[in-house]
Fold this sequence. Notes:
The protein has helices at residues 12-29, 33-43, 47-55, 62-71, 73-82, 86-111. By secondary structure, the chain is mainly alpha-helical. It has a domain at 12-85: 434 Repressor (Amino-terminal Domain) (Orthogonal Bundle). Helix 1 (12-29) runs antiparallel to helix 5 (73-82), helix 2 (33-43) packs across helix 3 (47-55) and helix 4 packs across helix 5 (73-82). The longest helix has 26 residues, at 86-111. It is elongated, with a radius of gyration of 22 Å.
Amino acid sequence: MSFHKTGRLLHDDGEHFAMMVSRALKDALGYRAASIKQVASWTGAGERTVKNWFAGSCAPRGQHFSALVRHCPGMLDAFLASAGRSDRLAFVDVQEARKRLRRALDALEFDAPPETPPGS
Length: 120
């Protein structure tokens, strides 16, 4: 009688998630030794684990994924897109555009010369 190995095999959803993480990491950082060290420092995970994330052979768990999203904005974008929530990406883009517009308007008001009263 033979026993099945358990615990390490990815199911279809897990494979999809692992590949999404892999693509997002490679898009954001490339695939270099420095990238692996950077992600390891962000997450506290070991370099071997991070190499597996880059390879797409396994996916990060919750706390590590949260750290990846915190440090790598492309990770959240990729996750929302894979979950079919691209509408949330548009909302975030609009919010960011508003913030930048407010900063630009504040800078213009700060740099503008004082107004002279009409008829002076």
